[in-house]
């Protein structure tokens, strides 16, 4: 997409985000051709699901939104780099949401993460581009010795990931609500280039030393730039896509991450990927010579999004995640099989909209009475965020070696507040966003019918 509006026209955050997502997708297609196959297969699956299920296929977003939807992933090494990327994403109306500590997952990846995305429902509907952004925790002694930490900090201090003019334009775009067309074009070119894979030679010895800690640590701290690590389309039937990709001869990871396919409502997020590919890279050897070799770092992820889970629903998911035996059978035994059951049990988030006409009968005092009496209809709220166990599972399935974590050493006290300080902005609580959206819809129904009080969910009484 090229910004070609007259100079006087304002290119707002939504237009910047939409254009950036398209350009990044084109870049990744050139760099990782198998990604193009993934997008093509996702489009085929979505068309078939739409033809089979009709309107129901769009219950969690229009086909236009699903087709355009992407999430990316990047990795940075220092708080200053995180603050810079937060500014760049802020220009595109993308805000940090959620705190994810992948150090504490089974994969033991030495990063903490947040996701930059739109937070308003109308902005998500226009373009829901999101970027899962990980920051290396260089002083966590479970992964890095004091000596390695010192040398890693020194290496990272010498690089500049984002050109100063890009950051300046991003600050201006946030302040002014957009850029004129000429500056928008400069911004988009620079932002896309910042995430391209660098042709510079990699110091083999340094990269190899960091790889002994973690492939992710090497990918972040072993090179002089960052890059888009994966770009993820959304699919309406991830099991079908998995089978179709294998039929095309593309090696997939061993399983689909997240809840199983169990016959009930899709909940939270399911993800899978094709395996990281051997990409040509140049290496600088100890004697100063440059040789050609390959690295397996980047992979092709795909996701299927379900209904956003409430804290109760998330607790159920976390419990069932560790249950032994057949996962689908476990879910069928423990979870309601319908959206209405999920709503009544307060396991998932839904919005309400007024019914077509005012019913006769008593004034409702609960959400169940609103729905049963025809006062309102419910619609699921799509899950816009991520699952640490799933993200770590994808990472682990594509790593060339296991991460090394020494649990006898002290970890670094890196938490939500610390990451907010590093990013230089508030990190939104995803539950608060879903709660606010749900509450606003309840209030709107109450106001529409002139009800004396807002009806409540069973768990709120």
From TrEMBL:
EC code: 1.13.11.93
Cofactors named for this entry: Fe(2+)
Protein origin, superkingdom: Bacteria
EC top class named in words: oxidoreductase
Family, similarity comment: Belongs to the 2-oxoadipate dioxygenase/decarboxylase family.
Name the record gives this protein: 2-oxoadipate dioxygenase/decarboxylase
InterPro entries, per the entry: HGLS, YdcJ_bac-like
Keyword annotations of the record: Dioxygenase, Iron, Oxidoreductase
């Amino acid at each position: 997409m090229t910004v070609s509006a007259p100079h006087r026209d304002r290119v707002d955050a939504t237009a910047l985000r939409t254009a950036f997502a398209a350009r990044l997708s084109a870049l990744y297609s050139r760099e990782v051709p198998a990604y193009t196959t993934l997008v093509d297969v996702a489009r085929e699956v979505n068309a078939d699901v739409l033809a089979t299920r009709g309107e129901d296929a769009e219950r969690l977003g229009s086909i236009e939104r699903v087709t355009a939807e992407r999430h990316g992933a990047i990795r940075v090494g220092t708080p200053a780099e995180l603050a810079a990327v937060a500014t760049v994403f802020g220009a595109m109306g993308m805000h940090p949401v959620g705190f994810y500590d992948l150090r504490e997952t089974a994969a033991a990846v030495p990063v903490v993460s947040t996701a930059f995305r739109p937070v308003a429902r109308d902005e998500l509907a226009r373009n829901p581009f999101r970027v899962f952004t990980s920051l290396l925790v260089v002083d966590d002694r479970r992964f890095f010795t004091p000596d390695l930490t010192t040398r890693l900090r020194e290496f990272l201090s010498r690089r500049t990931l984002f050109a100063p003019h890009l950051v300046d334009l991003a600050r201006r775009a946030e302040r002014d609500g957009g850029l004129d067309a000429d500056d928008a074009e400069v911004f988009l070119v620079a932002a896309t280039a910042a995430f391209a894979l660098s042709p510079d030679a990699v110091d083999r010895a340094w990269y190899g030393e960091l790889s002994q800690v973690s492939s992710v640590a090497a990918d972040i701290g072993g090179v002089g730039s960052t890059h888009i690590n994966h770009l993820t389309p959304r699919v309406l039937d991830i099991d079908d896509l998995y089978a179709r990709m294998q039929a095309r001869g593309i090696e997939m990871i061993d399983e689909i991450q997240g809840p199983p396919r169990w016959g009930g409502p899709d909940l939270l997020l399911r993800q899978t990927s094709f395996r990281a590919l051997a990409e040509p890279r140049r290496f600088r050897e100890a004697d100063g010579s440059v040789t050609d070799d390959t690295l397996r770092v980047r992979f092709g992820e795909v996701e299927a999004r379900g209904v956003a889970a409430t804290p109760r629903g998330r607790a159920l998911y976390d419990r069932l995640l560790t249950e032994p035996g057949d996962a689908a059978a476990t879910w069928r035994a423990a979870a309601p099989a319908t959206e209405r059951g999920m709503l009544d049990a307060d396991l998932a988030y839904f919005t309400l909209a007024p019914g077509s006409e005012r019913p006769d009968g008593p004034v409702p005092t609960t959400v169940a009475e609103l729905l049963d009496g025809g006062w309102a209809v419910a619609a699921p709220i799509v899950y816009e965020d991520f699952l640490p166990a799933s993200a770590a599972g994808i990472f682990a399935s594509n790593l060339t070696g296991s991460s090394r974590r020494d649990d006898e050493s002290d970890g670094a006290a890196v938490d939500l507040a610390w990451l907010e300080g590093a990013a230089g902005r508030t990190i939104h609580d995803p539950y608060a966003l879903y709660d606010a959206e749900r509450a606003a819809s309840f209030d709107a129904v109450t106001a529409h019918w002139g009800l004396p009080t807002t009806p409540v969910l069973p768990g709120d009484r």
